[in-house]
From TrEMBL:
It is found in: Cytoplasm. This is Uncharacterized protein. Pfam families: TPR_21 (PF09976), TPR_7 (PF13176), YfiO (PF13525). Keywords: Cytoplasm, Repeat, Signal, TPR repeat. SUPFAM superfamilies: TPR-like.
Length: 285
């Protein structure tokens, strides 16, 4: 209440704008996003010339993002771009807008938005993620060559987790086109940075070798999954199951039993455990 009185008393000052903005922040921190939107909107309407007005409008975009109201994210982001057309937060707001389009499956609009960040704000903190997301949009739009090219480039220029994920995604694009040789040439250059990435990589490589009829290489790839300490990782579970089936086919029954035992250790899924135990019982007969 005191804050409201202060705002009314110093209506024309920057201090009043800041006080109003802080009311929005308070509501935002309490996760009362509707109230926060109301308070931030007052900053934009009552203090349009204040230094804090762009922040208020950007925060309205954030609130709608939290509410998962993606249509409103786009509307409010467009307002920001027309009110504050030379503000430094444009890349951030555009990125939220691109993500909203993506969530709504409007991939063409999402691609255009991410591309404009990449082209016009190449130095911003959002350019790299925009480029990655642009590739994902192209993938969704069926433009797989374009997607793979960006992802490969991204993977080679970057480092760490994002670089690994980009290369894996590029390989998957070629797998979806049944170009397993090309996928493998990408996968073979990857150095995973975590057990999770390793699991995905080894399973996908196994799948490629299997599709090319290279059983021994597929087995080697799936075999690497045994050593990973993960729980309920879909790639590890899938790969170990395939490994066990390979061993059964080759009549290497004790190896198959070992693979099924490892499968039981890394999965908490009752159905998976039961199937593996059933196979072990059958093979021991």
């Amino acid at each position: 209440k005191k804050m409201k009185e202060f705002i009314e008393k110093f209506q024309a000052s920057e201090l009043a704008a800041e006080a109003q903005f802080n009311l929005g922040i308070e509501s935002y921190e309490k996760q009362d996003y509707d109230k926060a939107i109301e308070e931030f909107r007052k900053v934009v309407i009552d203090f349009p010339e204040s230094e804090i007005a762009p922040d208020a409008q950007a925060n309205i975009v954030e609130c709608y993002k939290k509410k998962e109201d993606y249509r409103s994210v786009i509307t409010e982001a467009e307002k920001f771009l027309s009110y504050f057309c030379d503000n430094q937060m444009i890349p951030q707001v555009k990125f939220s807008m691109g993500m909203a389009y993506f969530k709504m499956h409007s991939y063409k609009e999402a691609a255009e938005t991410f591309k404009s960040i990449k082209d016009d704000y190449g130095e911003s903190d959002f350019a790299s993620s925009a480029r990655y997301n642009l590739a994902l949009c192209y993938k969704k739009m069926g433009k797989s060559e374009k997607a793979a090219m960006i992802l490969q480039q991204f993977g080679e220029e970057g480092s760490g987790e994002k670089s690994v994920m980009a290369k894996i995604q590029a390989g998957i694009v070629f797998m979806e086109k049944s170009d397993f040789v090309k996928a493998l040439t990408i996968f073979e250059t990857i150095t995973p940075t975590s057990a999770k990435e390793s699991a995905q990589l080894y399973e996908l490589m196994g799948e490629c070798y299997q599709s090319l009829g290279k059983e021994a290489d597929a087995i080697q790839s799936y075999l690497r999954l045994k050593a990973l300490s993960l729980v309920d990782n879909p790639y590890q579970v899938k790969g170990l199951a395939k490994l066990a089936v390979f061993y059964e086919k080759q009549k290497r029954y004790s190896d198959a039993i070992d693979a099924y035992k490892r499968l039981i250790q890394v999965s908490t899924n009752g159905q998976v455990k039961k199937s593996a135990n059933d196979r072990i019982a059958y093979l021991r007969q």
